[in-house]
Amino acid sequence: MKKTPFEKNDLKTLTPEQVDEFKREYPSGIFMLEVLDKKCWLHKPDRNILDLASASSRKKDSKFNETILKNCWLAGDKEIITNDEYFFGASAQLGELIQFADASLKKL
Questions:
Q1: Of 31, 68, 24, which Cα lies nearest the Cα of 47?
Q2: Is residue 61 domain-resident?
Q3: How confident is the model at residue 2 (pLDDT cuts 50, 70, 90)?
Q4: What CATH number does the domain containing 81 carry?
Q5: Helix, strand, coil abundance in the chain, percent, nearest 5
Q6: Residue 108 lies in a domain
Q7: Tell me, what's the pLDDT at 45?
Q8: What is the DSSP string of 2-40?
Q9: pLDDT, tens digit, 9 for 90 and up, residues 12-67
Q10: Per the structure, how many domains does the chain have?
């Protein structure tokens, strides 16, 4: 299944079959984020999305979270991004979306 850019994406929900298709396209993970009565489906961000989010946050701190949401968006209610109450609730969960493997460094 091909991901639609956020601005053109009108999907409100994903079927189990669509979730399975996206899981094949994004093996690092698909997530359903629920904020009060709204839901959205996201994939885990990659390095390019994180770089874009970091660059956009130089103008405004909240742009980091907005960039992550918009660029990882698969389906859902866009009020999660346009309404501050939902946006800040969603933003509080994004740290879980950006979890990566643990690593260790040892001096030799």
A1: 68
A2: yes
A3: confident
A4: 3.30.2220
A5: 45, 15, 40
A6: no
A7: 95
A8: PPPPGGG-------HHHHHHHHHH-TT-EEEEEETTEEE
A9: 999 999 999 999 999 999 999 999 999 999 999 999 999 999 999 998 888 999 99
A10: 1
Q: Which domain holds residue 43?
A: 6-91
Flag whether 103 is in a domain. Answer: no
11: in domain:
yes
DSSP 98: T
Q: Is 107 helix (H, G, I), strand (E, B) or coil?
A: coil
Distance CA 38, CA 100 (A): 26
DSSP 108: -
Q: Please give the model's pTM, rounded to 2 decimal places.
A: 0.88
CA distance 46 to 97: 11
- Whole-angstrom distance, CA of residue 75 vs CA of residue 4: 9
